[in-house]
Amino acid sequence: MTPERKTPESLLSVQEQLIAREPIFHRPEFGVTRADFEAMMAEEFWETGASGQRYSKQFILDTLAARHAQPHDDPWQTSDFYCQQISPDNFLLTYTLTQGARITQRMTLWRRESTRWLIVYHQGTVA
User: Fold this and answer.
1) Residue scoring higher pLDDT (94 or 74)
2) CATH number, domain containing residue 20
3) Is 5 part of a structural domain of the chain?
4) Cis peptide before 71 (omega within 30 of 0)
5) pLDDT recorded at residue 68
6) What letter would DSSP give residue 51?
7) Taking the model in full, what pTM does it have?
8) Is 116 among the domain residues?
9) C-alpha to C-alpha distance for 97 and 57, rounded to whole angstroms
10) Is 32 part of a structural domain of the chain?
11) Which of 11, 22, 32, 120 could pair covalently with 109 via S-S, beta carbons 3.0-4.6 A apart?
């Protein structure tokens, strides 16, 4: 029943670049300010949360600014990565995120623009 998911060898380099950026907004090396987060997002970014609720780019930026205004623990583990090319410069990365007892299946649609990566869409589903 579970689909076979093996990233093609031709996409392993892309997968490694994207793994370094996941989970999105949890990697301090890519920044922790509102401006940093906004620079990671495509203009049309939106998200579907684990609750099924849709969130705008503005809402996500407000939430991230509030979260990073105070020190906080952020333990997590990622696994089971799979990368697919959707169109010439768009790639879908799926993976499992474990945060304590909470496990979610994640997907991020990434766009490569010149020398940078932009997040177009993100979704999390409780497993």
Assistant:
1) 94
2) 3.10.450.50
3) no
4) no
5) 87
6) T
7) 0.93
8) yes
9) 21
10) yes
11) 120
